[in-house]
UniProtKB/TrEMBL annotation:
In the C-terminal section; belongs to the transposase 35 family. In the N-terminal section; belongs to the transposase 2 family. It comes from Planobispora takensis. This is Transposase. Residues 1-48 form the Transposase putative helix-turn-helix domain. The keyword DNA-binding applies. GO terms for molecular function: DNA binding; metal ion binding. Residues 294-360 form the Cas12f1-like TNB domain. The lineage of its organism: Bacteria, Bacillati, Actinomycetota, Actinomycetes, Streptosporangiales. Residues 172-282 form the Probable transposase IS891/IS1136/IS1341 domain.
Length: 368
């Protein structure tokens, strides 16, 4: 059965100098409003034990605009400022529900520069997007088409540390599930091989971070030599950010293609329920685990499976997938990481990772 989902389409765009200036002012005002509201809510919560509502912070915003010191807030669109307050409200709701840590202040250097516009603050006409306070539409690079008849409900504009501008359009899209199939697969996550499938296929880890490590290290050394606060240091920082962005973009593109393939080819995808946060505490493996991006891969699998009528079955992380013989079910006592092949007493010779993937598939299907 088809379902309607909200899906974000992200594109690069090239602003005019006037648009870039307007957006830079908006980013600064959004950050200021968020931080001032967080400061007041923290004061009320710490000193009075009182929770401040969104309505109260919205009223404060009106007062700030009328004050002499902050009257410049009226020069930018009011919608991104209100959205910043809504995001802060959501952050506090998650904190009080114990789903997240206490909200933190936004930094000019470390936080993502972004602004969110709802329908009242932009015009969408004939595939051209014009934001509030702007006379010209954005020059968007349409790398892929929007769904036919799509009408954006929310537009988020951002600028990354590498100086690239992006616009994300949130639209409602009708997604039809794929036809059911009988094929299922077990997936064992690794480092040498990014994934090993129960079919015996091993998907090589591209190791994007390692491939670009020399370029990144050179950029970081160059940055370290620049005087703090100088314009040359700012330029060097952008080069470092571009190196990081290249690694991130290539990794994400690979993961998207891989997860789409797995979802299209299998009805059930069984995976280990790994706790990446704990695994990266192993300093010997932290870099390799982070480069593999297991958490991002799992997230992609789950939302794509939900879209297309597939199932992701998570197997308990304590399940002894590597030590269990997939042929007879016998459990081996110990299995050091250095052991890549082993033979069971029943005579079955196992590749460690393929055997683990087969056991993960069996356990995932048993839990359905």
């Amino acid at each position: 059965m088809a379902q309607i989902v909200k899906r974000a389409y992200k594109y690069r765009f090239h602003p005019t100098p006037e648009q870039a200036s307007e957006l830079a002012r908006t980013f600064g005002c959004v950050r200021l409003v968020y931080n001032k509201a967080l400061e007041e809510r923290t004061r009320a919560y710490t000193l009075e034990g009182r929770r401040v509502s969104y309505v109260e912070t919205s009223a404060r915003l009106t007062k700030w605009k009328r004050s002499g010191d902050l009257d410049f807030l009226s020069e930018v669109s009011s919608v991104p400022l209100q959205q910043a307050l809504r995001h802060l409200q959501a952050a506090f709701a998650n904190f009080f529900a114990k789903r997240a840590k206490y909200p933190t202040f936004k930094s000019r250097k470390k936080s993502r520069a972004s602004a969110e516009y709802t329908r009242s603050a932009f015009r969408w006409r004939d595939g051209r997007l014009t934001l509030a306070k702007m006379d010209q539409p954005l020059d968007i690079v349409w790398s892929r088409p929007l769904p036919d008849g799509a009408q954006p409900s929310t537009v988020t504009v951002s600028k990354d540390a590498a100086g690239r501008w992006f616009v994300s359009l949130l639209v409602e899209e009708t997604i039809r599930p794929l036809d059911p199939i009988e094929q299922s697969v077990g997936v064992d996550a690794g480092i040498t091989s990014l994934l090993t499938l129960s079919t015996g296929e091993k998907i090589v880890n591209p190791k994007h971070e390692r491939a670009d490590r020399r370029r990144l290290a050179r950029a970081q050394r160059n940055l370290a030599r620049k005087a703090k606060g100088s314009s040359n240091r700012a330029k060097a920082r952008v080069k470092v950010a571009r190196a990081h962005a290249r690694i991130t973009d290539r990794r994400r593109d690979f993961l998207h293609k891989l997860t789409t393939r797995l979802v299209r080819e299998n009805q059930v995808i069984a995976v280990e329920d790994l706790t990446v946060r704990n695994l990266v505490k192993n300093h010997s493996l932290a870099r390799a685990i982070s480069d593999a991006s297991w958490r991002e891969l799992r997230t992609m699998l789950e939302y794509k499976a939900a879209w297309y009528g597939r199932t992701v079955a998570a197997v308990d992380r304590w399940f002894p997938s590597s030590k269990l013989c997939s042929a007879c079910g016998a459990l081996r006592g110990t299995m050091p990481l250095g052991v890549r092949t082993w033979q069971c007493a029943c005579g079955a010779l196992h590749d460690r990772d393929v055997n683990a993937a087969k056991n993960i598939l069996a356990a995932g299907l048993a839990e359905r």
